[in-house]
Amino acid sequence: MNGKPIESYEQFRNDVAMLAPDSKVTLDVLRDGKARQITVTLGERPTTVAKSNQPSRGRPQSQAALGLDVQDLTRSLANRFGYPMGEGVIVTRVDPGSPAANAGIQPGDFIQSVNRESVNSASEFERAINSIKGKKVLLLVRRGQFSQFVVVQLGE
After folding, report:
1. Cβ–Cβ contacts within 10 Å for residue 117, how many?
2. Which residues share a beta bridge with 28?
3. In the chain, which stretches have pLDDT less than 70?
4. CB count, 10 Å around CB of 70?
5. Which end of the chain is more exposed for a tag (fewer CB within 10 A), N or C?
6. What confidence score (pLDDT) does residue 47 get?
């Protein structure tokens, strides 16, 4: 970014956060295996996000609290993302401004554990989230070939 190597997602996120809205940033990216340089204009993240105490229709309450949707990994999704079958759940949606979004979780991420407890299905994920006592949850999240622990801060 702007000629500076990006060492981690956290560094990139912090570097972007330090820039003012409407700043122009030059990014060196790989697209279709080819290096390209693009210029983007940064937007402004909303400072407040409407919150609801009611989960979305059909959405488990714990997933609503995190601001994400997960589903069991299908063979098609496993092949698409290169994730192992039966060893986690895939994130299908992340609400902007939600605790999950603030922690850097993205659609397509693969959640392998909740508070160091393996989850192999959406129902196991739901049980694990519902058993949390406190305001933080530790998720083992895989994106592509890399896994990292992510702390999601619940509530205020």
Report:
1. 13
2. 37
3. 9-10, 14, 45-62, 155-156
4. 25
5. C
6. 44
